[in-house]
Amino acid sequence: ATPTAVTVGIGRGAELGLLIRNGEALEVSEKLTAIVFDKTGTLTRGKPDVTDVVALAVPEDRLLAVAAAVEHNSQHPLAAAVVRRAESAGVTVPASERFTTFGGRGVSAVVDGEEVLIGNQPFLEEHGVTVPEGAERRIAALQDEGKTAVLVAAGADLAGILAIADTLKPTTKRAVAELKRMGLSVTMITGDNERTANAIAREVGIEDVHAGVLPQEKAQEVRALQSRGEVVAFVGDGINDAPALAQADVGIAIGSGTDVAIESGDIVLIRDDLIDAVAAVELSRKVMSRIK
Ligand code: ADP
Ligand code: MG
Questions:
Q1: Rounded to 5 degrees, what are φ and ψ at 213?
Q2: Is 38 among the residues known to form the active site?
Q3: What pLDDT is attached to residue 2?
Q4: Which range among 32-36, 64-68, 85-89, 100-104 shows the weakest confidence by mean pLDDT?
Q5: Half-sphere exposure of residue 258, counting CA atoms within 13 Å on the CB side?
Q6: How many Cα atoms within 13 Å fall on the side-chain side of residue 194?
Q7: What 3-state DSSP class applies to 172?
Q8: I need a labelling partner for 27 at 20 to 30 A (CA). Which of 56, 231, 238, 290 fits?
Q9: Nearest Cα residue to 35 out of 174, 146, 175, 168
């Protein structure tokens, strides 16, 4: 039978904005040694904006039009940023066909009879697009500012670069500092590139960063920590995060996240506030000390 203290703890959690799905989650949270955060939509707001438009082979309006034509088919937060920028620039967005998404790397479609590829540098290079040295330097500089560089290619040519930036949630830095103070090791994991990931991690105060992680690899990273004896919480919001949430000893889902993530979480942060993850660990420590 569930000890009364756990039941009371779950009720207390509800008052604190925590949906605790099972008593076990509360019991295991006391034993956590490591906490792993997804970046986009978890540490950051997940509502990014286009900050820089670098037109290389085509005029700026054409770059935005072509990019929006492809991205309006995508559910990705980066795609929404591109579409919004095209709208505010007032460009006419052409039709697209044969949209394809390459999970964690990019998207493609045919626009005005030409194949358009949008995504990160490795993705474009795999498809035979050459990134000139000057563009590469520009990309690195944008990434060092914590921005995600989205490359746009039409045919085999790099048409331009869109830099997209997301801001931290207001309590991210404080939550991470608190968790460290409580003795947990903190890791960031993201499908974004290493330079951008490191810039964001530096801002947050996270030293352990795993970047360029494909969706299916997030759960493997959690498993690797567990095999080293760590008791791991994973905090995430996206479809990509569901397997890692399930693999973790405690899966913590962001309340405004995707349905799949919420269903996979043992604990849901109803208010989307990472301080509530700190509250969950504190609550479990309190409850478990009462049981022992
Ligand atoms: P995260 O783990 O940070 O949520 P994802 O795994 O969803 O990131 O995506 C990883 C990377 O793949 C992005 O940083 C971007 O470079 C590229 N990418 C994915 N989807 C798109 C898209 N619709 N448009 C442009 N780039 C994309
Ligand atoms: Mg995310």
A1: -85, 125
A2: yes
A3: 65
A4: 100-104
A5: 16
A6: 3
A7: helix
A8: 238
A9: 175
Tell me if 106 CB under 6 Å of ligand 1. Answer: yes
Write down the pLDDT at residue 124: 97
**Closest alpha carbon to 38 in 200, 154, 153:** 200
ipTM reported for the complex surpasses 0.90: yes
190 in ligand 1 pocket by Cβ < 6 Å? Answer: yes
Residue 29 makes CB contacts below 8 A (sequence gap 6+) with 233, 250, 267, 280, 281, 283, 284, 285
261-270 confidence digits (pLDDT tens): 999 999 999 9
Ligand 1 pocket mutation pick from 192, 195, 216 by most atoms within 8 angstroms of CB = 192
Q: Using the mean position of ligand 2's atoms as its centre, give its distance from the Cα of residue 132 in Å.
A: 30
Q: Is 30 helix (H, G, I), strand (E, B) or coil?
A: coil
Model pTM score: 0.89
Range 156-167 average pLDDT: 96
Q: Give the SS3 label for residue 135.
A: helix
- The answer to whether residues 248 and 232 touch, using CB atoms and an 8 Å cutoff, is yes
Token pair for 20: 């605790």
